[in-house]
Structures are given as C-alpha cells and as structure tokens.
Amino acid sequence: MHELGIAQEVVGIVAEASRGARVTRIVLEVGRLAAVLPDALRFCFDMATEGTVAEGAELEIVEIPGLATCRACGGSVTLDRPFGRCVCGGSDLEWLSGEELRIREMEVA
Amino acid sequence: MCATCGCSGTIDGLEPHHHPHPHEHDHPHDHAGSTVRLERDVLAKNDRLAERNRGWFAGRDVLALNLVSSPGAGKTTLLERTIRDLGGEVRVSVIEGDQETAHDAERISAAGSRAVQINTGKVCHLDATMVAQALVELDPAPGSLLVIENVGNLVCPALFDLGEAARVVVTSVPEGDDKPIKYPYMFRGSHVMLLNKIDLLPYVRFDVDRCLAYAREVNPHLAIFQVSATRGDGLQAWYGWLRGRLAVRGPFAPSAVH
Fold it and tell me: How far, in Å, CA of B37 to CA of B2, rounded?
C-alpha cells in the first residue's frame, strides 16, 4: 500500500509550493506503467490531506499511456502492463512513457 | 472541419458553430484562485536522497545491494550463509528492514556481521532516508559489501531507489513458478534473480522452465541463479557474481577509471 506514502508526498510538495494558500485542486499525471493504482491513490488522498492546506481539494488523475520501443527491431509497442511483446516477438523493450508520477499543476484559492 | 470536436459538417450553416452540451458549467469549486504549474516528480525527494547514498557508497568503495523478496523466500538464510562462506574474503554489513522485531539483525550478528535493524512500523518498504540514517550508525568499512535487506514485499519496495548498485530479488520454489509475471515491477527493476529452495523441487509442483521464461519475459537482462541457501546448491555461481561485482569497484579498477 505505497499509495498512502505517495499521497503524503504529493500533499507535502503542494503544501510547500502553495506557501500557506489553500489548495483546491491537484492535477496528477500517473503513467500506466508507474506501479501506482489511481483508485488506491484516490482512496488515500482524503486521509493524506486531512488537516493540511489541501484538505477538501479535488484530485484529478491524468493517466499517461505506456509506450515502448523494441530493442530488437526498433518497432513501437503500446503497453498497458509492465511487460509485453513486439510484433517481431522481441520482449526487450525500452520504455518511452508510462512511468510518470508527476504533479502537473495545482489550483490555489 | 470543426477544431473542437473534429466533426465534418456545420450546424445551420454556421462556422464556427455551437455544440449544445448535456452538462452544466458550474463547478463546486470557485475559479477565483490561480493555477500554479508544478511539473514535479512525486518521488523526486527519494530519488535525490538515493543519489546521495549512491555517492556515499562510491566514495567509500562500498558495494551496496538491495535484497528484496516476498516474506519467507529465504533472504536472511541466504545472507547468513553468504556471510559465513565469504566472510573471510570481504567484510559484510547488513541493514535489516522489517515492520517489527530485531530477529533478523540478531541472526546476522550471530552469523558474524555487523547489522542495523530498521523497524518501519506501518510502512511497507525501506526508503532512501531510512538507509541514510542507518548508514550513520552502521558506518560500513571502506571496500566492504553492504546488503540492505528490504521489507518482505514484492510490490512497494519496487518504487523506492535506495542508492544501491544492484537489486537482487529472491523468489522461492514453494511460492509458485509465476511470481515473476505476477509481480513484474519488482523483477523488471532487478539485476539478479535467485531462485531459492530448489532442494524442495521434488516435493512441490513447480515448473522451473516456466518460472525462468516468465522472468526473462519481464526482464531479458536478469542474471538468474538457482540455489538452495540451506543445502548449498548453486551458491558458488552466486558468489561468483558477487566476486565479479566486488572486483570491478574501486579507484584502481578499470571500470571506475572512465
């Protein structure tokens, strides 16, 4: 259940950046290959924001698709789990996107 | 073509045209505030501290390994055996991570190595800060091997870089042959996989080939050793890997020059 720790980290970052202003909305980018479950993150978010400047804030999660390049043939592969195969049969994939776990922006009152 | 929705036609001959929406435009929050662009990686703080640990290890020529597995796969038994077998060649120290108890640190001390126990309480993994704090107390000797035995958990520790040179994942025969594909993040991020408890193969339904195929599908670059930490099978190959990694460190080693 590392999502609680991640939610607390998110709250820590926005609280520092907001300099005391109330945070009303947080937009978080979560890649499909980031090993973080958006639902679990939402579940933990209210707990993590309680008593902070982000209490009651809306959490918007933008999911980023997983994209990779096949190291064997150079082909593009779309991934929705952390492994897969290229059409050439290769499973040695270089991930290009999908590992994001990033706070894109926040709204302050 | 309409730039908003991509539709090709026009409504009542108007261009640009209006699209009626089924939803209201009032929100429960007000827009009087401002939007602040952050673009901040959530794990950046841990990653920064992990890099600091990595620098600390490099400065002291310490080979640091992050040892991970599910609970009961045999990490501590493997470590006890490794310490007993290699203790004459290299100094070994251990950071033990568990939610509770100092049982593992006591076992490591009894095997002849210095150990510091971290109790993570409710936390399901070690992070770079915990390791940095343990290093102050443990103070591993220059040129030594440091093994960080993570909390038994194949999920959460996968996300947290500790500053290690390599991550070693242990999986064991009684757990079943599909662990690598069930917990792919952990196996993908590891450098070595030790398939432990192979002495139990005659008694447990376990397809070694299938397990290795899953592991290679998730991570084609894994170095894989089949071992029994209790009986000793395959440990020479694991020690060979360790010796190889220990040999390429240090200011005079060819790989460290460039």
Answer: 29
Per-residue pLDDT tens digits for B69-95: 999 999 999 999 999 999 999 999 999
pTM: 0.85
d(C-alpha A39, C-alpha B252), whole Å: 50
Does a structural domain hold residue A86? no
Query: In this complex, how many residue pairs, one in chain A and one in chain B, have their CB atoms less than 8 Å apart?
Result: 86
A42: Cα within 13 Å, side-chain hemisphere: 11
The total of other beta-carbon atoms located within 10 Å of residue A21's CB is: 17
Domain that holds residue A55: 3-66+98-108
B3 in contact with A, Cβ within 8 Å = no
Chosen from B42, B120, B153 to mutate, greatest number of chain A CBs within 10 A: B42
Architecture in CATH of B44-246: 3-Layer(aba) Sandwich (3.40)
Question: What ipTM is given for this predicted complex?
Answer: 0.90
